[in-house]
């Protein structure tokens, strides 16, 4: 099976031409020499390139699908069509299995890194929320201790202050690491 749009079109043109000849000695697409396939690919590319500018009928057909939007009809549909034709003209055959394997590994590693970043971001957000809660608790217990003079409130306040200090140190370390990465 041909790999690119140019090859697909070239094969279709060659096959149509070969079938019209009724010559039993005509070679199939897969049997013709690479130089002949290249010729037919060049012919196909010229034809595809000529299609780069859509006809008014093509623009109208596109507008019928997407609605009667002036910008779409007069700009976007033409730009999209040109982009698709340009892509067909610059298309590369699919990669080798080894290249696909490498690309798949890169995608998997990237996805894992993104998931880890999301997890770390969620943890940092949780730490910040916990820090704010602890500060509010410390403020309340400090007020309660001042009112009552109870040492139990003082112990709870010290524990909370230690946890605040620890969380602030962890957040500062994370921030420092992010600064080194950026």
Portion of residues in beta strands equals: under 5%
Q: What integer value in Å does the Rg equal? A: 34 Å
Q: Which stretches are poorly predicted, pLDDT < 50 over at least 5 residues?
A: none
CA-to-CA gap between the ends? 47 Å
Average of pLDDT: 78
Structure, described:
The chain is mainly α and 182 residues long. The protein is 82% helix and 0% strand. It has 6 helices and no strands. It has helices at 5-21, 34-50, 56-66, 70-90, 97-148, 151-181. The longest helix is centred in the C-terminal third of the chain and has 52 residues, at 97-148. The chain starts with a helix and ends with a helix. The mean pLDDT is 78.
Q: Quick recap of the structure?
A:
The protein has 182 residues and is mostly helical. The chain has helices at 5-21, 34-50, 56-66, 70-90, 97-148, 151-181.
Characteristic key phrases:
182 residues; mainly alpha
Note the topology.
Blueprint: H1 5-21, H2 34-50, H3 56-66, H4 70-90, H5 97-148, H6 151-181
Helix pairs in contact: 1-2, 3-4, 5-6
